[in-house]
Amino acid sequence: MLELQNTTRSNGEKVNYLVINAIGRDRPGISHQLFKLISHIGCNIIDSKISLFGEEFTLMMFISGSTVQVTQAETQLSRFCAENQLLSTMKRTELPTKTKPTYRLEANIECSDRRGIVETFTEFYASKNIDIDSMTAKTINIAATDNQSEKRFQISGVAHVDDTVNLMQLQEDFDQMCSEHNIQGTLDFINTVS
C-alpha cells in the first residue's frame, strides 16, 4: 500500500487529490504527453497504471497538488484529451481513512480459459468482506503438444487486511475455491507492519 503524504502542506494549505482515467487510440508518446502535462503543472503523481486493450490505450492516474494545481490539471487535461480524441473522466477524492493494514495478500491463479473465472475470484474476496486493491486478468497462449497452443487465463490480485482476519482459514477457503473450480492458485501473506 502506498505511503501517502499528509493532507496539509507545511504552509497549512490543504492537499487536493484527483483520480484521472483516459482512454483512446494508442500512439507513440501519448502517455509521455499526459505525464509531462501533470508534471509541468506541479502536481505529484502518486500512482499510475497504463494498459493496452486491443488498439486502445488506457491510463489511470492518482495525483495530488494544491487547489490551484489540481484545478489547472482538471482544466488542461480536459482540453488535452479533447484535442487528442481521448475519453476522460476525473474525480476529486480524499485519502482513505482506514487504519494501516497488517497483511498484504498476493493471489495468483491460472486455469484453462473459460467464462466466469473473474467472477469467481472477485466473489471470493467479496464473501470475505475484503476490498481488492489491484487486479490484472489476461488470456495468454501457451505452447501445447502437436504444435497446438492452449489458451490459459491468469489473474493476479492484491488486497490488504488487518490482524482480525484468520489467515489460516482464509488460506483454506482459497484452496477450496481453487479445487472446486479446477484452478491452480497461490495466496501469499506479507506482513506490512515494521
UniProtKB/TrEMBL annotation:
Pfam families: ACT_6 (PF13740). It is found in: Cytoplasm. It comes from the Bacteria. Keywords: Cytoplasm, Repressor, Transcription. The keyword Cytoplasm applies. InterPro entries: ACT-like_dom_sf, GcvR, UPF0237/GcvR_regulator. Its main location: cytoplasm. This is Glycine cleavage system transcriptional repressor.
